[in-house]
Every structure is written in C-alpha cells, then in structure tokens.
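Hey L., structure's done. Input below.
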Amino acid sequence: MLSWVFLIAQNPNREEGYLRICVPLYIASLTGDWETARRLIEENEDLAGCSITENNETTLHIAVSPKSTKLTEDFVRNLVGIMTDEQVQLQDQTGNTALGLAAIAGNVRIARILVTHSRDLLNIRGGNGNTLPLYLAALYGRYDMVNYLYGESENLNDRFWNDEHCGWLLSKCLEADIHDIALKIVTNRPQLAATPSVLEVLAVLASKPTAFRDIEHKFIQRVIRAIRQCKYILHLTFNVI
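Output:
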C-alpha cells in the first residue's frame, strides 16, 4: 500500500504537507464531508488508495467506523465509486479491510455498500489470518451485522468456511446470545457435532445456565440430533461406533 504519510515525510515541508492534506482528509472522513475529501483527492493523485495514518488506514478505513448516518453513507458510496477493487480491499496495519472495520462497528448499511462494490471483501481475512468480517461481527456481538453477513456468506458453504472456522463462529454467536444464527449454523453444518469444536460450544452453553430459553433448547436438541446423525453415518461407513 502506498503511504501518503511516507511520501510527505520525504518532503522538506512534511509537517506542512501532513497538516494540509492528511489531517483535513481524516476529519472529512470522520464527519462525512465529501466535498472536502473530493477536492483533496482530485488535487492529489492516488490519494484515495493511500494510507493517511501510521496504522496504514486509508480514507475508506476511517470513513466506515463512525456511527452510520446519511452523510457517512453517502461519503462511503461516493468514495468507493472512484476507487478500484484493489484499493477498496486494502488492509490496515492490523490486517482489517474496510468491511472488517464496518463489521466491528456494526454499520450494516455501510457494509452493504462495500459488499455491493466488492463481494471479495467477505472472504478477506484480517488480524491473525482467521478473522473474516462475519467472525468479527460475532466477536463484537453485532447481531444485525452477523445476520446480514451470514446471509451474504452462502450459509458458510463455500471454501472459506471449514469446520474449524465454523466452530469458532458458532462459539462466538453463542457467547453473544446470537442464538438464531447459531441454530442455522448447526442446521446447515451438522458435521460440526463430530468435531472438537462442539466441545467448545457445549462449554459455552454450560457457562450460561440462566440463558436456556426456547431457542437454547432448540439449539441443544439440534446438537444432540446432529451428534446422533454423525454417529450413525460413521457406523455405516466405518463400523466404528
């Protein structure tokens, strides 16, 4: 990623350049001031795809994090409209894409704008390489975002979601009381019951004895049914149970 901070640092008047370009653009990104951002980007080639902070955040990274308003949504829509897919998919220093940060913040309408522009964002891992945007949303307990991203993720049936990753997501959904999505995961991926991930899931349930309402009972019944199904399949296939 091209760093505007680095380019300015090579200039003898780097402090003046940073104050004149990066600071106003940063503020414009936070406040949804598209006219200021547009002017700065038009005056400085490639600025839309450059990092403007020491954390390698681009203008888009900054714009998706504040609380979603019409101003910020219009800002993001206008910004991605002049960016390439490669620029939209850039990751900051911690590995997060703009969609990852929107997932953490719970900004669903902004996430829709990003996914409409580039569906590849759904499958770019951040952090330690295991944190897809859907997982981040569950980790931070963003129910509406989890519901949206799960719907966009083909029920976790693509190559980006193996049983281990689905197990992690399932556990985080339970920890965040996102039980309807947890139930969908077990319904669509009953083989999870035959993996070590199910032990973590059951441990989460056991730690929440006061949380067993109807949805939890349905979830437990689904887990038990899935375990029985897996045992039956293993018995028929390998005669091991």
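Residues 214-238 form the longest helix (25 residues). The CA atoms of residues 79 and 118 lie 13 Å apart.

-- N.
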